[in-house]
Each structure stands twice: as C-alpha cells, then as structure tokens.
Write the structure tokens for this entry.
Amino acid sequence: MSNEHTNEQTSAGGGVETNVNGNIRPEAAGRNQNYYNDTISKTFEDLDLKDELLHGIYSTGFELPSSIQQRAILPVIDGHDVIGQAQSGTGKTATFTIGVLQRIENDLDKTQAIILTHTRELALQVNSVASNLSQYMGIKINLSIGGISVKENIEQLNDNPHIVIGTPGRVLDMINKKILSTKYLKIMVVDEADEMLSKIFMSQIYDIFRFLPGNIQVGLFSATMPAEFFDLTTKFMRDPIKILVKTDQLTLEGIKQYYINVERNEYKFDTICDLYGKFSVSQSIIYCNSKKIVDDLDHKLNENGFAVCKIHGKMLQEERNDIMASFRRGETRILVSTDLLSRGIDVQQVSVVINYDIPQNVESYLHRIGRSGRFGRKGVAINFMTYYDIKNLHEIEKYYSTQIEEMPNLENLNDCLN
C-alpha cells in the first residue's frame, strides 16, 4: 500500500503545526519524541482528562498510572501515531483505551475509533475494560467478532457506535458490506501488534487500511516487537512516537520463576499431580504446545478428580466464552490452554502459571507467564523441563536477562507462593 499517511509541514517556524486532517491538537503541534521521552504523567489528573472519564478510571480501581500509562496516554490524546511496548500485565489495554476515550466526541453520533485484536477472547477483554472506563461517558461501544451473529452485528453498527472493537475478519466484512462507515474515523488501534502484523493477519490489516482515511491516527501496542516489525510500520504510520521498553528492561518483576527437571515427557503428568497435591492455590493456568496435549491432559486431570477445564482454537466460540466465564467466576481451579490465551487475558485470581511444555519461541514465554503477577500482583511460573528443553530455557534466560531457578523441595511449595 502507498504511504499516504504523512505529515504536513508549515513554513512558519518550520515545525509541525497540524497533520492533514487536524488530528494533532494545536497545543501539541511542537511536541516531538524528545518531549514525550521527558514527560511523565504521575497522576491521571496530570492528563487533563474529561471528568466523566476520570470518574470511570477511579471507579474501575485504578489509582495511579503504570509506567506505560505515564508515558503513552498523552501522545495518543495529542493525536500522534504511537508505538507502545511494555511487559504483559502493565496496563497497555487501559493505556490506549483511555487515550481513545478522551479523543471521542460524545455529541458526534458516528464511529470515530476502531480497536483491532487478533482473538475474540482478547476483544472481549478490551471491550470489558472500555465499558468500565467509559461507564459515565454515555458513549456506545460495539463488539464486532465471530460468535456474534452477522444480523445482530449489523443492527448494532446501524446505531452508529462511537467505538468498534473487533477482530480483523469481522471488521473487514462489515466495512466491505458498507455497514461500518470509516468516514468519521479519527484513530485505529492495533492491540498485540506483533501478532497482528504477522503473515496470518497482514493481508486483512492491509485491506482494512485501504478503506481508512489516509491520515488516520494509528496506535500499535504490544509486549514484544521483533526488528522486522518496525519495517512494516513505515507502511502505514506517520512519524510515530515510540514509547518502548528495551528487551533487557522487560523485567519479570513480581514473578518467581522455577523449572522442574522432569527428564522425559512421560513423567510430566505424575509431576503435575504431585504439584497440586503439595500446594494450595486459588487458580492456575497450564500451557501446552498443542491442542492434542491440552485434550489429553484435561481428560487425565478430570479422571483424577481435579476441577479443571480446557480451551483451544478448535473449540466453538460459544463454548470458549462459557469456559472463560466459568473460570473467571472461580468454578474451576485449573485451566489448560494452548497459546490462544497467552495474550491479554487477565484473571485476577491466577497466581500460578505452569508451562507443561516449554514455549517454542522466546516471545511466548513473557506472554504466558504474564498471566500471573499482572499489574503489580505477585505470581509464580513453573517450567517443566525435559532433556530437550535445556537449550530453549537457556535462550529464554538470555533473552530476558533473567534467571530461572530449580524448584525447591516439593514440601516447601507454599513458601514459594508467598
């Protein structure tokens, strides 16, 4: 696609006064990367937010902005393109949601923002955050995802929601059907952008951008951003403000990391049973590298009397929704999952994540164990290591500049959780 998304320079003063559709606020015209590097909003009041939005923020339970929120909300509000990177569980969703909500004109009964996610579960999570934060603002939010009937989706979009949150396939379908109008769009946010700009979703993302105003504000947010990611962003971003955390600064603070040398795959199940017999934990997630392993482990745990449920991509969406709702209510203690749930899903009670299989790439490790210890809470990550996993585990330690210690004696497991 051509890069029509460009800045307009003015001759007076030589600075950026406005972009081609006036997205950048006049008072923010001279603010550049250095300004945002040096500006930290230590309280939400520092951001000069709408009273109704501020009320929603505090009612949702936020007290002070997290590190990414201190730095990235302001450039979003100011109308700049933004690339935001921060560790899982540090408040990225609230970062771009607050920025988007501040930009919405309540009295303009048109769709002004689209937030794209790569899974339905993540879209539901973002929708929950946006609904809570906007509860006093009187704005309409639409969820455009598979699992919701097309007829119902069309009816809701005909009501001109201010914000549409959805997955690429459904959003593109609604645009192609001329149900979702892009005429009044101000901002497009892409969550878990590294995943969304992968080969799986790239063609859909490109197709969506074909229908957008060439100068729309774009926000890309993710925990990990490979080098090739930044090459892709030049195709549809305009001098983005980069709020980045270097790889060696992606600390896993608050999460204790251990490995258990199980030696062989056949010994993993007995080990998991020993673990759950030795410690008490409210809820935990077990990650496996394939749907078959998830199915097998779920079956065996259920046979042995554990309160367990499973989730993976081959299950029907309605079933996945019911399982997540049940797990959030605490009706099951253990959730067995593939990497489907490794991004963006926050369950408050999860304090332990077990990698039944070591993840196949280093980026997945952070997303997985970030399910525990989210937003300042403490958590524990336990990795089952066979002989073949030693190299992968060392690569993870090197990549994150961290140390994964051998699990202490099983009799002292509860001490590890405190």
Residues 36 and 138 are 30 Å apart (CA to CA). Confidence is low (pLDDT under 50) at residues 1-21.
